[in-house]
Amino acid sequence: MPHEQITLYTAKICPYAQRTEIALAEVGAPFKRYEIDLGNKPEWYAPKVNPASKVPAIAYGGPDVPPENPSPESIKLAESLILVEFIGDLYPSSGIVPADPVQRAQARFFIEVVSTKFGPNFMKFASGNPEGTHTVLLAGVDAIQNLLPDGVKYAVNDQYTIADIALAPFWARLTVMVQKGIGAYKDEERKSFLKALEDPKYAKFNGYVQRLLARQSFKSTFHEDVVAEVFTKRFGLAK
Fold first, then answer.
1. Per the confidence metrics, is the pTM higher than 0.90?
2. DSSP alpha helix (H) spans, the chain
3. Per residue of the chain (239 residues), what is the pLDDT tens digit?
4. Sheet hosting strand 75-78, strand order edge to edge
5. Are 163 and 140 in contact (CB under 8 A)?
6. Cα(82)–Cα(174) distance, rounded to whole angstroms?
7. How far apart are CA 154 and CA 161, in angstroms?
8. Are 208 and 141 spatial neighbours (Cβ–Cβ below 8 Å)?
């Protein structure tokens, strides 16, 4: 059964937007992609697509029109985690939204931990906030690892889900930053973080995130050169 047309408003630099792109890649949905310059957003974007003027956003349904002239007949949706679930609901056979209610709840709980224990600490670390030490960053890693089941590939089971999609873009950006020394943090904090991750106690976590970054849906939607360039301009290099 064919679905309504999808237009995605996104930005290569944005981890939230990449979540939605990963979900679309996973389900194999056809869509139009429109890149929003976050530093110079089109005047029509907020009034016609997303009043919050953020990405990602989707225009769903309505007539087939150019992305820069969205139809009032299309449904406008925003917020990455809502969009990821929406895409999974459109394509239930993809399995990215678990059909089992227990596993679905586990996936959502995992996302909650990513959103509260890891995401904020990542931003504090990148921006050089005194509270954003490598120890705090590792606490987020610990919280995620504690939820990973033994003997499976991904956050819930061997099926790639919304839980994995929630983390992958953020871990990828942190990886680029610490490998290249990009960020307003002290370089000793970067070295301490990388050294700590070498501890065998993080073997489960390291194996898990390696699988996330090796997945084709991630690789096809991640633009490392753009991330490195923009984050260097925004945060500078570690000192």
1. yes
2. 15-27, 45-48, 80-90, 101-113, 119-127, 134-145, 162-180, 187-197, 203-214, 216-219, 224-235
3. 457 999 999 999 999 999 999 999 999 999 999 999 999 999 999 999 999 999 999 999 999 999 999 999 999 999 999 999 999 999 999 999 999 999 999 999 999 999 999 999 999 999 999 888 999 999 999 999 999 999 999 999 999 999 999 999 999 999 999 999 999 989 999 999 999 999 999 999 999 999 999 999 999 999 999 999 999 999 999 88
4. 32-35, 6-10, 57-60, 75-78
5. no
6. 23
7. 8
8. no
* Alpha carbon distance 105, 115 (integer Å): 15
Q: Which two tokens stand for residue 24?
A: 């679309």
Phi, psi of 237 (to 5 degrees): -110, 150
The DSSP annotation for 202-213 comes to: GHHHHHHHHHHH
Query: What does the block give as tokens for 60?
Result: 């769903």
The letter for the amino acid at 104 is: R
CB atoms within 10 A of CB 38: 15
CB atoms within 10 A of CB 28: 9
Tokens representing residue 163 in the block? 């839980």
**Who's near 98: CB < 8 A, 6+ residues apart?**
104, 106, 107, 156, 159, 161
CA dist., res. 33 & res. 20, Å (int) = 11
Classify 130 as helix, strand or coil: coil
